[in-house]
Structures are given as structure tokens and as C-alpha cells.
Amino acid sequence: MEELKILVLDDEQRLRDELGEYLQKRKHEAFLCANPTEAFGVFLKTEIDIAILDIRLPEMSGLEVLRQIKDKYPATEVIMISGHGDMESVIEAMRSGAFDYFQKPFRMNDVQHAIEKTQKFIELSKKLRQKENAISVLTGRLYEDIGSPMIGQSKAINDVIQLMSRVALSEQTNVLITGESGTGKELVAHGIHLLSSRKDHVFHSVNCSAITDSLFESEFFGHKKGSFTGAFEDRAGSFELAHNGTLFLDEVGDMPLGQQAKLLRTLEDRKVRPVGAKAERIVDVRVISASNQYLTEMIDEKKFRHDLYHRLSTFIIHLPPLRDRKEDIPLLVDYFIKLFAKRMNKSNIVLSEEALLAIQAYSFPGNIRELRNLVERAVILMDGKLLLPKHFPLVETSGSPSKNMGNTGESFLDEKEKQAIYQALKKFNNNKTKAAEALNITWQSLNRRMKKYGID
Questions:
Q1: Phi first, then psi: what are they for 243, rounded to 5°?
Q2: N or C terminus of the chain with fewer C-beta within 10 Å?
Q3: CATH value at residue 20
């Protein structure tokens, strides 16, 4: 077990000494206190991982000590020691934030089991905080730099953010981002740049599908004045523009084979020669590529170079389609509603539950870009304050009611709502509070709908 700082608060010296000796043998740092005044003195000087408290104490009750610890030092987990007949106090302690308890008289195995269980929870909490911090930092930097944050709480998007955070630290590593159109590949590329040590330098984006063969070398490597007709002045290419920063190659799969060979040479040498120049120039860039095509299939079809693929794909991040992270839809819709409401000088816009359920039932072939466009159109169409299914005509008509009618004669929308409730309850192990939060409705509203559809 990792070394922990554990405070023991009990007025029985024999018990304190036994626990202290046991903890020290297991390489934990033990702080032994006879009363709450001593204990809070330790808290002022040391960050305590676990506090073990007796329920019956001098000066104040263990419950009051627990409440003060959770109020002032919320990162500290608390294990209560109870005597026989103290179960009501134990229940109250658990409600007030205690993580575990053991009873007097106890065996040291009981203590060990409680500490191990609490330590696992502490480690999990730290990991969750690290994820939240990574999302918070990334969202803040993206919003500040390009006005578009990374939004989501699903496991899929959390996994993407963790990969972004890891590869950002390796500033020379080339990254390939795959995923369908509209999933946010450029946003992820920009996020990696902002999390890296290159963040204070240029993020330069190139649309590979828009560059013709005749302009490729000039676009990527630059040119000297007079090197060809129309070259009226020296021009830096994309690699030089991105020097010390990040070069983003969007839709790299659309690049013709001839251009791919020239790009490969530059990636290997890290040198460019502008058109008309005599000397090469060294460039220091991280290359991030993106494609909505299956590049491995294009290799088999001789449409994409195998060696270039391996040069670009040192680290691969795949962005899931929106239909595979539907729990993020309420957050995304809420963000886009606020965004467009502000732009159009509209306020207090509310999305109806029926509209949200219809949106969640839609497959979104255009992913987040399509969702953004649908919300913008809906905010334009609405007259009052409530967004209804009719304001999302594509979503409203995307399914065929006749094919989705249940045997009980339920409407198409009712059937979709029922399925959404089933899925939410299943995902959260029948926890109605969490299911209601995921569906963006109140607990009471969920209860009414469960009764309506006979869901037990």
C-alpha cells in the first residue's frame, strides 16, 4: 500500500497506541490525538489523507468533528469508530460524509480492510479530479484561443482528452486524428497544440483537398520572388509559417500521390527548400493530420502511401461519432442554444423535454457540426421562449412513425421517450437521480414518465 497520512482521534490512550503502532508497521505516517483541539492543530499543519474518529469524544462529538473536517478539509476521508449501540450515530455519520466505520472491540484486520477500501476510493477520486482538471484546462484554453470549448462528459470524450493530454507532452510526435466529418478533428488538433510547449507559437491549418499540384510546393515550402509567373514577392510556405509550432493537415487523405512523396521527404529531413531558393531551411514543427477516410483501405487501393501513413500516424486518436456519445448531446445543445441566443439577442430560451428526446433519438450523420447547424436554425425559427420539436424539422421527421409504433398504439415520440428512459436507467443501474440528470429532466418528471409507460 502507498504511504498515507492517517490521523487517529480517540480519548483512550491504549487504543491510540495500538493503532499508531499498527499503522507505522505498515509504513503509514500516524498522528495520534486525544481530543479535537489536538486534531485540528494537526490539520492546520498537515494534509491528512484519512482521519479515524471515535464517535464519543471529549469537547465535542465525533459527528461534529466529522462535519467540520468535511467542511474545511473535504479531501480527507473519514472512518468512524463506534461502540455497541451506536448504529444510529453511524448511520448519521455516513450521511454526513464518513466513508466507512468499524466497531469496538475490533481486530486489526477490520482496521486494515477499512483503510484499504478508503485508499482505493481516494486513488479513484484523484484520477477523477485529474480528468476534470484536464478537461477544465483544455476547455479554458480552447475557449480563450478560438472561442470553441471541448464539451462532453461521456467516457468516450474523456478518453480522447486523456490521449490529447498525454501526446501533448511529446512535442515531436506526429499525430493522426481519425473520425467522421463534423466530429471536431480540428478542435482536437488545436487542443493538443494548446496543451503542449508549442502553445505560444503558431497553429497553422492547411486544407489538403484544396491544394493543386501546381501550387503544392509553393504552398508548403514557399517561394522566392520571380521564381515563377505571379511570384511578385518572397512567400513563406506552411512549414516555415508553423516553425516552432504546429502544422495541421486537414483531410490529408485527399492529397494526390505525387504530393504525398514530397511531403514524406520533408517530414523525414525536417528541411524545406522554397521554390527558386538555393539553400534548404531547417523547420521545427509538429505535424497533426486528420482524415475522415480509412487510410489503411486507401493504402490497399494504392491511393495513399504506406510509408507516409506510418510517418503521420505515430500516435492515433479516433473521434467517436455523436451517435456513440449521446449522453453529451444535452450539454452540447445547451451550449449552442446559449451561443446563438446571445448572437441573436434572445434570452431565457428553454428546450422542451419533447424536443430533447427527439434530438437524442436522431442519428446525426453530420455529427456535432450538424447539431450546431440545427440549433442555430431552431433559434432563428422560434418566436417565443420554448424550443419545440417543430423547430427541429429534420429531427422531427427523421423517423417514420408508422414503422416505430408499438403494439400498444404509442406514438412515435412516446416510444422514443420510453426507450431513452430505459437506456438511462440501465446505464446508471436504476439510479433514478442520475438517470434524470442524464435525460435533463427532474427526478419527479422521470417518476411520472415511468408510471406513464409502466416502467418498474
A1: -55, 130
A2: C
A3: 3.40.50.2300
